[in-house]
Design a protein that fits this description.
The complex is a heterodimer of chains A (787) and B (236). Chain A has 787 residues and is α+β, with helices and mostly antiparallel strands. Chain A is 53% helix and 19% strand. Chain A contains 22 helices and 20 strands. In chain A, a hairpin with a 2-residue loop joins strand 13 and strand 14 (513-522). Chain B has one domain (36-64, 78-233): P-loop containing nucleotide triphosphate hydrolases (Rossmann fold), CATH 3.40.50. In chain B, a hairpin with a 2-residue loop joins strand 4 and strand 5 (72-73). The chains are: A alpha+beta (787), B alpha/beta (236).
Chain lengths: 787, 236
Amino acid sequence: MRALDLKLMRDLRRLWAQALAIAMVLACGVMVILMSSGLSAALDETKRAYYERNRFADVFVTARRVPESLMREVAAIPGIAASEARISGNAILDIPGRPEAAIGQIISLPLVGEPRLNLPLMRAGDWPANGSLDQVVINEPFAEANGFVIGDGFYANLNGRKRWLTITGTVLSPEFIYTIGPGALMPDAEAFGVLWMSRPSVAASFDMQGAVNNIALTLARGANEQHVLDRLDDLLEPYGGLGAHGRDLQISHAFVQTEIDQLENIAYVLPPVFLGITVFLVNMVIGRIVALERSEIGLLKALGYTNWDVSLHYLLLAGLIAIIGIILGWISGAWMARQMGEIYAEFYDFPFLIHRMPISSYLVSALAAFGAATLGAANSAVIAARLAPAVAMAPPLPPRFRRGLLNRALEALRLSQPTMMILRDIIRWPGRAALSVLGLGLATSVLVVANFFDDAFDAMIDTGFYQSNRQDVILALSEEAPLAALEEIRRLPGVLQAEAQQFHPVTLRHGALTKRVSIEARMPDADLSRVVSDDGTVVVVPPGGLALSHRLAQQLDLRPGDTVQAEFMTGTRETLSFPVIATVDQVFGLGAYTDLEALDAALRRAPRLSVANVTLDAGETEAFHAAIKDTPALAAAVFMSDNRRAFIETIDENQNIMIGVYGILGILIALGVAYNAARVQLSERARELASLRILGFSRSEVSYVLIGQVLLLAIAAQPLGWWIGAAIARLMTNQFSSDLYVVPLVLQPATYAVASLTVLIVTAVSLLPVWRRLIQLDLVAVMKTRE
Amino acid sequence: MPSPVFRTENLSKIYRSGEKNEVRALDGVDLTVFESEMTVLLGPSGSGKSTLLNILGGLDQATSGTVWFRDTDLTALQDRALTRYRRDHVGFVFQFYNLVPSLTARENVQLVTDVAPNPMRPAEALELVGLGHRINHFPAALSGGEQQRVAIARAIAKRPDVLLCDEPTGALDSKTGVQVLEALNTINDRFGTATVIITHNADIRRMAHRVIRFQDGHIAKVEVNDHRIAPHEIVW
């Protein structure tokens, strides 16, 4: 090994604590790149393989009733490779031993053979016997959550009759990777199941003999999806087609894809923070080393080493730090990706998970890390290259302090000398002080972001469940019914209040912009399901008007006062125009709200309901559940307490991981910045501080100069950290919000306080080893060494 | 008469600090240093000795005038060529040793042998200065005299054509100082390396072939010693 390389290794060993502190910050960046890109690649690859093996469809359409004979025409649409016609519907399930009703989505199996598309993957047992009417295959999570084994069964409310269904097998399906029931916000495997039954059985249950209501298609290579969708819509319009859509609107796929996209986004948002801090830390530490090794640089040049040799020496030091960071980051990133993969595998119903970390992730993260380290060391390397050997060997000139305006102002304050030393140093090197403030500010901001999720989800739960949706149960009717049906619902045991609501699938059109959503129609005095704006006021939509969620209005470029066309996809398929009377910030979904009675008047019919919102007497819930299990006209019952529990449990789990990861990242940044800032200070000012001690200053007075300066910068960093944290939170609300839910930007004062307190404590702790060094300074030795 | 190794013509070096502040460190110096001779530069602080040594060694550039190393005009060389010149021809010894603290004695010498075209083994160089038994010690474990002898070993390991020493005994007591001078004398005798030594110690001049006295950036006087004394005869 060359002597210069030996020096390099020994320098690194001497600087191990500082190098490790930097490497850990760098490792965070590498880890996040690897974790997010590795995880998104794993999910993407798994999804792709699963879709391919089990022939997941490209196009989906639901209609009211399509004669089977039409399928020939559907299959003849140019660009279609394969098609599958099915009957699908919802039913209330009565599971032995479970007081609450569950909901089942029933899907028919082909008469012969296995499904051509969306092929369920058999996990246990077998398909129902050919022509069997009471055998069923269910999705595996539903079976596991309810403790079913093959041969068990449950009752289903099918077409007004309660039938016992026997489980012959359990499956997983590419259509239900993310299995979410009607009206639910999060998967609840216990309360919602997917049931596959023989075609004749399903046809009998939903009065669909000779007809289908659900079609899935795959496209031929190179086919134009939009053309196929348009042709399908034309073809199915007379049969109550609800609009054909691609995978993007298939609920399970949309959730999985959103997750993959979010993971990819994280790879762009967070790592630059860590890489930026690394640049700064490397710059600070290598800069100090070059200053300390002036005479060695001069010596090397005197010995005949070239400027490039000398520059490379310091670049290599940064490179070695990068290598440590990369190794730590690779190990932790690969581990994290695997751990998170396991969590995702639980949350999403994949039959397998392909852990394949793309080589490119390793390469990109390593390149980014080397780039950051090199950039950080570049300035010092150039300084080292430029130092003329004769100049380098002479001691450096003392730094020039000037009596500028700021200094005069300081003098006027009559501060103590140690305080003056702190302030003068900051004024003398404002750039360095500013970067320390920025680094510590970023640490605070990451911690603000960590806790921001807590605030945001609290707000989501509060407005979503306690302000807007205050019903205990949502009862969905199989068919729209006259308002009088509400009376029957009120007569169910335990019902305290019952209110009518309608949901209409529509296409909203504003100029060239269209969006497929549901219009929710309510009575003006609705008390259980309300539209609540973000300032807490209840929005009552005047008859004939439409209120839109902010996100929907944005997507359609609508403002209050504009008019929007609504093409109804059910009933008589009318097109109505509505004035937009308000836009409201909504947490869940793309809401469009109107007045029920006015809508029915416009549709020229008596007021009806498709959904009833109900509150219950807590003492009579069991009787209520028992009653609805036997009520034939119900397609689904959504229990808000279950809904809320599933939402909170899911969010909590994710959130704890988030807070954990972000918390550790924030702490590591604070540690890296504060420790290095103090260490460099000590190295630069050792003589100065030793002189103070010799002059009779006490240890605590001398400590004050060093510790005080870093703490002062840490305190100054807090407002900046809050501001950056809020900005990152805003960015994240945009990135994490989808048409499914909007993450509100809510930041409680406590969030800021916790973040700042954490950073200040971590700063203080990371100063301890430097402080120990300071008080153990060997005064004589320090004074003897040549500056 | 030996041939000249260094020759300067009207050599000047002016340091400017601020607009009007001008220091003439060297002011029109004409000088010749001969092959295989030991030359001592004497003079008070600020008289221009170190500046001259730095320019001869290619560490610094002259403001005006010319410097020849044998047939090469050093003042015409760019940075890259000067580096090459230092690497191939010059050995330096400094007052404060300038050892790299994180490298052992052997490794400090190796710093030079790694880049020099025809070096001796580091151990051989250290034996020449009487430190064969201390080669694996770090600088912190060596005395001042030992450290300076490591620096000399480092300077001679490349078999330089010239050895430039800036106050090599300046930081040493008389006993260790003599050891260092013995080492320099041995090298000069054995290899015929042209050696230039800056010193404040007027007695050291008596071991030189030639003594050049500096005053205010000028050469005040050049003396030739007919009778050289051995280093151990020098009194501090």
